[in-house]
User: Fold these one by one.
Assistant:
Number 1:
Amino acid sequence: MIEVAEAEGIIDGVRLEVETEKLDVSDTAGMILREPITLDRDLPPFDRVMMDGISIQYDKWEQGQSVFPVEGLQKAGEPKQLMDGNGHCMEVMTGAILPGNVDTVIRYEDINIQQDGKEISAVIQKGPKAKGQNIHPTGTNRKRGERVIDQGTVLSPAEIGVAATVGKTRLNVSKVPEVAVVSTGDELVPIGQRPLPHQIRRSNAYTISAALRELHMEAELFHLNDDRIEIAEKLDKIIGQFDLMILSGGVSRGKLDYIPELLEQKGVEKRFHKVRQRPGKPFWFGQSEEAVVFALPGNPVSTFSCCCRYVLPWLKKQLGMRKRNVLRAQLTADYTFKKKLTYFLQVTIDINNDGIMKATPVKGKGSSDLVNLCRGDGFLELPEDRAHFTAGESYPLFLYRSL
Ligand SMILES: Nc1nc2c(c(=O)[nH]1)N[C@H]1C(S)=C(S)[C@@H](COP(=O)(O)OP(=O)(O)OC[C@H]3O[C@@H](n4cnc5c(N)ncnc54)[C@H](O)[C@@H]3O)O[C@H]1N2
Ligand code: MOO
């Protein structure tokens, strides 16, 4: 039996081949970018008018001119106009390119427009504070050629907007691997079926595939009954078809717990079996040339805690995510767990006024109590070398819900 950090290290050493695919930019939110994004133009790309109003030559105002004949209108989306008249102004709209021969913009709020016959003039009520006022000069946000988003970034709406502004209609992102999620056990029936008294529904497969959805991964669901021949045949097919398999159940000491033995028989090399943790002690992990296999213990809370603690962080890394943030939260109450095992404590999370995550234990009825997962937000990892944990101490947090 190995400890949690060792299990994590072994899993971390295993690579999953992840391809790159090109998708329409609008389909990439939440996906992992596989190319850097550089600016194809300065930002802003032209001297941009920032307020609706008029544009003037500042020197004229400084020399005492306060009435400016209006020469025309520069709208947003129109090519740059050159002004004829010295001492004239041009009306300008927010987002327009600054006309030629002017250098300062004054808001409509600070002028009066007056008409005398055909001649329209702007009378300045509140003069500009400085030359260049209300103009956003070319390239003052960013310069053309600057690398603004790194490869490995998870694409949020912010990155999608930048990709769109540099004209990326399609983006290279990590292609999510196909994954087989396999439940095992004779007692398990499809969830649409009414179970007999000795049966239960196959909920784990749904929990796991929902967790994978967070990474945009689609799982294909399989089920294996506790039958050596059936398991052997189906494993052959699944291993041949998928690079990644996540199984639940059939990995402890039961007479019908065939999974570890048959996986090895099919060429999946055991990398470890059993981790000093609760829940999830009988966790089995292995790999063959074709596939990486997580065989998680069947109790629903064990399946889910192993998924949150090992499978998802590893997958994020394989998909090329740049950094892995391990969150931490502070216990709000003392907690005692005497067994020499790492304990994944179910907690609710609140963020206090100082922005600190506070973890309050939610007491459940053990590793079969999947309803208790609905009361919590995540698992707090309490190390095995301690038995007493004190309020105010902080520990790694594996969150399964956004706060
Ligand atoms: N003699 C021992 N017995 C057990 C040990 C042990 O060390 N020695 N470990 C216990 C621990 S801890 C766990 S966790 C379980 C895990 O066992 P398995 O991985 O073999 O899981 P199963 O026996 O197949 O199932 C356990 C439990 O979970 C239910 N289950 C399984 N799959 C699903 C599913 N897809 N959806 C819903 N529920 C599922 C199953 O019906 C069982 O009740 O072993 C202990 N035993
Ligand atoms: O690890 Mo088992 O998951 O304690 O029930």
Number 2:
Amino acid sequence: MSIHVDGVSKVFGTFSAVKNIHLKIPTGDFVALLGPSGSGKTTLLRLIAGLEHPNTGKILFNGVDFTNKTVKDRKVGFVFQHYALFKHMTVFDNIAFGLNVRPRKLRPSKQEIKEKVMELLQLVKLEETANRYPSQLSGGQKQRIALARALAVEPEVLLLDEPFGALDAKVRQELRQWLREIHQKLKITTIFVTHDQEEALEMADTVVVMNQGKIEQIGSPREVYEQPKNAFVYSFLGRVNEFHSQPIVNGSYTNQNNTVAYIRPNEVGLSKSNSEKGIAAKVTHIHTIGAAVRIQLIRLDTNEFFEAEMTAEQYKKLGAVENGEILFADFKNIVYFEGNEGSIVPFDKVSKIKTASGS
Ligand SMILES: Nc1ncnc2c1ncn2[C@@H]1O[C@H](COP(=O)(O)OP(=O)(O)OP(=O)(O)O)[C@@H](O)[C@H]1O
């Protein structure tokens, strides 16, 4: 089922949680709503579900206006962060619930329900848990059962609100893969809310980046990461260093028109010898995270902190580094934006100046 959110706004009291959102989701798409806490992701999801009613705008399913239809009329399945399984029911009965509560005329036979539940248990790879109670499942298993339960009523849209938010890193990773595979099989239009950029970039076909109730950018994971529309998207989608003071880079560009320079830590080159382009900086902290080494430094010219990230191999090449040592940084891929929220400024539009050293 395709979804069209057409100019939708939602106000709580005097607070605008969602502001004039336009979003078209084609059938079968896997969409991540990504943004910081309070950006309106859950509210938008609830508006699509019919759990909230918009103040303005329309919501269309397959081109038909569903704005005034109830949750029941919309063929949506939900999974929330906190597994809302019924504690007093077995896994089997939890999954069967949506079918068992149908009016007699629409209810499948006992045998049909059994087959459906077993088929879903197979899909979520938890056949052996049919007779257990939710308290006898791990967090990851509960979320898989919650998904099976949502799928039992054959929804045409699947809505997931931070479904893996409460799970540990390893289980999250496994479930991301697993949910992707399930989507590949069933191809149900799926929208999931997350504040985790890695999760959004890894799983979704389309990423919708939200901030303060508005959409900042819609695109494939690659598009939003490699061609961010503005400073917010750039800085939300990965670690960044931010420079406000002058000179920004390589001693020859200045910070006029409120330009902010950004660079990702893995695009900072470090060297022990002073090259022509190098910016002198003092090492303040070194730490290893898995296969990566992060070095924190402070620029001697502007006193701004920044971070460089490299592979263990690159670090070895650089040679042993100590706190307090002076290194020379090469900012390889600087991006300029107008202020902290503004759009990208092309490199040739950043004002060029002569520096004190005359370079
Ligand atoms: N029922 C409500 N009444 C009043 N304010 C609300 C209500 N629901 C949400 N809000 C406000 O709307 C804003 C957006 O909330 P929403 O839950 O959509 O954000 P979110 O991006 O999903 O954040 P999080 O990741 O923290 O869940 C927040 O400031 C929140 O306090």
